[in-house]
Amino acid sequence: MTSIAIIGAGLSGLTVANRLKNIADITLFEKSRGVSGRMATRRAEPYFFDHGAQFFKARTDAFQSFIAPMIDSGIVAVWDAHFVEFLDGAITQKRQWGKDSPHYVSVPGMNALAKHLSQELTVHCGTHVHSITKQSDKWLLHGEQDKLLGTFDWVISSLPAEQAATLLPSSLVFYQQVKSVNMKSCFSLMLGFEDDLALDFDAALVYGEDISWISVNSSKPGRKADGCCLLIHSTNHWANGHIDDDCSYVLDYLCKQTSNLIGHDVSLANHKVVHGWRYANIDKQHGETHLIDQEARIGVCGDWLIQGRVEAAFTSGYKLANTILGLLKHD
Ligand SMILES: Cc1cc2nc3c(=O)[nH]c(=O)nc-3n(C[C@H](O)[C@H](O)[C@H](O)COP(=O)(O)OP(=O)(O)OC[C@H]3O[C@@H](n4cnc5c(N)ncnc54)[C@H](O)[C@@H]3O)c2cc1C
Q1: Can you name the residues that pair with 29 across neighbouring β-strands?
Q2: Which of 59, 127, 261, 297 is the most exposed place for a label (fewest CB within 10 A)?
Q3: Is 219 found in the same domain as 155?
Q4: Residue 112 C-alpha to ligand 1 middle, in angstroms?
Q5: pLDDT digits (tens, 9 = 90+) for 207-249
Q6: Closest CA relative to residue 24, chosen from 3, 45, 43
């Protein structure tokens, strides 16, 4: 059986793995302690935060079919949020999200979808792939202190572009394309309160400030109801300029921005943590959905080839897997 190493166990890597698992011997390597990548959930009992992706849409037939069984089994649910928009400090729009254009979340946390997808797969978490080298016609993956992680026929990168560029051989036909991509940063501010803040919204898009999004994480379906969990995102623009700043400065600044906007002193929260995402997001792209060097037997997928969206991560992984399925069937 063809052996395939997939680096990264976010949605794109897990999508490839699930589509190829019956035709190839798949091993995933993930540097974090758990799967899910930017569809992340942070626990700080009694508080829970989806500090990466907030919700997702399913516009394509392929993604709708993919999530349908997970909707049936309750791993994916619709978030019917009270949604508002802030412009220059005031609420200018209000609406109730509805079933006609569903906003989906995984349950009980955003990482549940990836956990479900990884159930029957071989995933080595806490394993940072440091280099890839070729010996004869096989790829060798190395971890910390050059430890050999395994030998494979194919390697697939599902990493954010900048991280992929540090690992992939520069001889690949598409290498310069990967190297030229710049993703945007974002900060996630996580605030836990003992009591409900009684806000006018569950989810808010914010314009004209250095924060771009506020959600009441505890308003999502299937979340634990202890206290109130607020999740705030900075704008990508502000984060790009401050990603290397001291965490306590970033936390205080984003708390002040939030307090001014919602009229509560959020610095009084019981739990306050900020997380910086260096490679968070990217605007809509217009090139290929995935990259493949058939001669070298290397494939690349990830949201950044399409747009910084959950559905884009799925589409990129799905299309790469379909291409590899075609190649392996003709081998
Ligand atoms: C703050 C934020 C908010 C967002 N909000 C939304 C939203 O509301 N809706 C939406 O649709 N999308 C949103 N997104 C985007 C969405 O999360 C991503 O599009 C999607 O999760 C990307 O999946 P992926 O598999 O392409 O990459 P990732 O999820 O980044 O997976 C890549 C994986 O590779 C691992 N990795 C990296 N380097 C190595 C290495 N050397 N060795 C081993 N493993 C490695 C990483 O740890 C990671 O788990 C948001 C993202 C962020 C950061």
Answers
A1: 7, 124
A2: 59
A3: no
A4: 14
A5: 999 999 999 999 999 997 678 999 999 999 999 999 999 999 9
A6: 3
